Amino acid sequence: MTTHKHHIIPKHAGGTDDPDNIIELSVEEHAEAHRRLYEQCGRVQDKVAWMGLAKLAPKADLIKELQRETKLGTKNPMYGKPAPNRGIKRPGIGGRKKGTLWSESEREYKMKIRSAPGYYDYLKNPERSEKISKALLGRIGSASGKTWFNNGLIETYALHCPEGFTKGRKPGRNSNKKGLVWYNNQQINRQFYEGHQPEGFNRGRLSNK
Prior knowledge:
8 strands; 3-stranded antiparallel beta sheet
């Protein structure tokens, strides 16, 4: 019969490896001992030991619970301390400095990946669409009831018109897109200046319908 060495006072509760603190138990007895300790003291370590020995839960789930429970509240080493990175500006996506533009080689590489057949197929998955639809059903969006207002210099999206603002978007806000034309390569739609489209792209947009 397989036996385990059980600490009468668990090591996580200050117990030692002194022979007087150790007894030999069967696996079932070991699980029962930790169950009793958990009921008496409420320590998550005993709960995990009991459930693991009794095979009442997968090992991975028990490890996650132990990690979570031992870092809650005052048990967390960062409890009550300020975040070490508070006030420090973080880089943009992928470690790139915010505002850095892609190089031509990066843009070409990204375009090649996104132009691959099937890259956007997940967007047409009806199960995905139904799941999103159900999740948003009945939810009031943060933009509900809001309207665009501008004062000629800046624009804001608000429920009520701020003083000095008028209803509508700022004039000329899309001036940086003037002259751009839609093209597609049978996989994706992209805007380019006429005559500057990459090879394989033709004038017009792909319909999503």
